[in-house]
Design a protein that fits this description.
By secondary structure, this protein is of the alpha/beta class. The chain has two domains: about 250 residues, Spore Coat Polysaccharide Biosynthesis Protein SpsA, Chain A (Alpha-Beta Complex); about 25 residues, no CATH class. The chain is about 35% helix and about 25% strand. The protein contains eleven helices and 13 strands. The strands form three sheets. A five-stranded mixed β-barrel has the order 8-11-9-10-12. Strands 2-3 form a two-stranded antiparallel ribbon. The protein has a two-stranded antiparallel sheet with strand order 7-13. The chain binds uridine 5'-triphosphate.
């Protein structure tokens, strides 16, 4: 169990997966760089970490990492040109994307699974609890999920996962959790975790989504976790070990807000339509056009 006095300042963003569900777009571009309206998906994720007070962000990258690093770097020639042309609001969006926390990068090498990606953060994170945000998972900006998870970690000293109730037939796409009520609390104790179970074998309809706040003990467990499903080192398997360890424990915060998996084509398209429809500069025109489009389909 982590010393609860150790505050959480670090976020780890795994972004080294191959993104095969989005081929051929992801042949030469990381899926985390695909734009949602006008920002790459990864920018929303970094902004979420910084908003929750986690300014020290480590990104786990792989092939094509250049685009990810370049996006958060300065582009002096572009900035000078926008300033000279008086394009102040565009200049602001460019400067805002350079100015997000303190970013670090490490390569995963072979993408041997999410657990393997998280283990690459060991040296940077050290002996402190830390957050993990999957680079292709978007949580509505209006939600405070991560801050809530940090609060639960500080209270319990264990590890915390975000859970979302999904229809039974969809549970096989996720890790599934068996949960028990914690008396007097609005979070749950996780007693069992299974990676991508069949609908019949799933312990519940609660799916683990892409936000975690983890005890540093997870590194030791990952070092001793053999490849599991898909021959990958699974974070879910390491969490199952922590859940069974009385001195550690895994807790679940149930999320009821909006979430998009931008690595999935349908969810990605929905994210673009929904978020654009809520934008002051685009919403009215997009919705007007959509209504006509659907009526005539
Ligand atoms: P996914 O399973 O969604 O990513 O992993 P993927 O393997 O890229 O996707 P598909 O199924 O082939 O389309 C969830 C997150 O974990 C990262 C991914 O980048 C994504 O953000 N990941 C996954 C790694 O960083 N390394 C890995 O070895 C696997």
């Amino acid at each position: 169990m982590t010393d609860p006095k150790k505050t959480i300042t670090k976020a780890v963003i795994p972004a080294a997966g191959l993104g095969t569900r989005f081929l051929p777009a992801t042949k030469a571009t990381p899926k985390e760089m695909l734009p949602v309206v006008d920002r790459p998906a990864i920018q929303y994720v970094v902004e979420e970490a910084v908003k929750a007070g986690l300014n020290d962000v480590l990104m786990i990258t792989g092939r094509n990492k250049r685009a990810l690093e370049d996006h958060f770097d300065r582009v002096p020639t572009l900035e000078i040109q926008l300033a000279e042309q008086g394009k102040d609001s565009l200049l602001k969006t460019v400067l805002d994307s350079n100015d997000l926390g303190e970013l670090h990068y490490v390569r995963q090498g072979d993408p041997k699974g999410l657990g393997h990606a998280v283990l690459r953060a060991k040296v940077h994170v050290g002996d402190e609890p830390f957050a993990v945000l999957l680079g292709d998972d978007l949580i509505d900006e209006k939600e405070d999920l991560l801050s809530e998870m940090v609060r639960v970690q500080q209270k319990t000293g264990g590890s915390v996962v975000a859970l979302m109730e999904v229809p039974r037939e969809q549970i096989s796409a996720y890790g599934a959790a068996a949960i028990e009520q914690v008396e007097g609390e609005d979070f749950f104790k996780v007693s069992e975790l299974v990676e991508k179970p069949s609908a019949e074998d799933a312990p519940s309809n609660y799916a683990v989504i892409g936000r975690y706040v983890l005890s540093p003990k997870v590194f030791e467990v990952l070092e001793n976790t053999a490849p599991g499903r898909g021959n990958e080192i699974q974070l879910t398997d390491a969490l199952q070990t922590l859940a069974a360890d009385e001195s550690e424990g895994v807790y679940g915060v149930v999320f009821k807000g909006r979430r998009f998996d931008t690595g999935d084509k349908l969810s990605y398209l929905k994210a673009n339509v929904i978020l654009a429809s809520e934008r002051e500069d685009l919403g009215a025109n997009l919705l007007g056009w959509l209504k006509d489009f659907v009526k005539n389909k």
